[in-house]
Amino acid sequence: MSLIVTGSVGIDTVETPDGQRADDVLGGSSIYFAAGASFFTKVRLVAAVGEDFPEHFQEQFQQFDVCTDGLEQREGSKTFRWHGRYHENMNDRDTLAVELNVLGEALPPVPDHYRDSKYVFLANTHPAGQMALLDQFPEAKLVVADTMDLWIETEKDLLTELLGKIDGFVLNDAEAKQLTGESNVVRAADKVLAMGPTFVIVKKGEHGAILRHKDGTGVLPAFPAHEVVDPTGAGDSFASGMMGYLTAADDISVASIKRAMAYGTVVASYTIEKFSTHRLSEIDREQIDARLETFGSHLDIGAGI
Ligand code: AMP
Question: Parallel, antiparallel, or unpaired: how do β-strands 168-172 and 209-213 relate?
Fold first, then answer.
């Protein structure tokens, strides 16, 4: 089974509260997603960068087994840029600057050999780009989307239309509140379900994630991390492990989604240990599975409780 993704490819500047910062590093939702999902399945990327996209980013990304035939370097355009600063709790963050650049332009063409993709992930990007990819895969087995505060603020109508066409939606608690007006995450998730998807996953940072599915509910804590260097990409990495696992298993039952969420949690727990994709380029599937086992043992609450 093949997994296709579109989303941002960015040049990020990240500041953390302990005074560390990374200037102009490889980022973007589809980068974190494709890198993480490549541990599970074949991933196909559709995205655009500008002529300023640094060559060493290509090399950094080449380490991952991702098909980049759909990654267009567009002449006359500039790459998406994002500058964020994390709060003391390493969960909340402020966007200090964002330059949409090529993200505000048309989606690049989808290569013909991507056409048989059955699993589609619409990573955080302009909802017009998400819709453009989605419309080309009417036969998909599973379509899941992510979004972010900027798009809820500026493109709510398009996002609402998108919600009517997808199977699953992942968002964090602040975004769920912003989208629905509900601060209770369960009520917020149910309001999102009423807008169309079969399931919604609300991520709550270090407090884990909640699944609301038309056929059941699931809760999962986060992996207990003792060192968080940079949380950027945690959400995309969570989605990557989840979608990567679901694609490889070719099983979209509630039980499979719950197991997939545990994989997502584990991939995210690696991403946050270093800036950019640097930690992901050091690990392999065996390490992911080993950490999943540790995570599983933490979750063992025993019978009869
Ligand atoms: P996450 O930490 O998982 O929410 O994703 C972080 C990534 O999202 C960063 O690498 C940014 O480049 C990218 N990003 C930030 N703002 C946006 C936006 N409005 N649309 C798409 N991607 C974004």
Answer: unpaired
d(C-alpha 200, C-alpha 180), whole Å = 13
- Amino acid at residue number 112: D
Distance CA 73, CA 53 (A): 8
Q: Is 108 in the pocket of ligand 1 (CB under 6 A)?
A: no
Residue ranges and CATH numbers for the domains of the chain are 2-296 (3.40.1190.20)
Predicted confidence (pLDDT) per residue in 161-185, tens digit: 999 999 999 999 999 999 999 999 9
**Tens-place pLDDT, residues 207-243:** 899 999 999 999 999 999 888 999 999 999 999 999 9
> Does 169 contact ligand 1 (Cβ within 6 A)?
no
Asked whether 104 and 77 are in contact (CB, 8 A), the reply is no
Asked if 253 and 216 touch (Cβ cutoff 8 Å), the reply is: no
Give yes or no for residue 117 CB within 6 A of ligand 1: no
The model scores a pTM over 0.85: yes
Please identify which residue in the block is written with the tokens 């013909």.
112
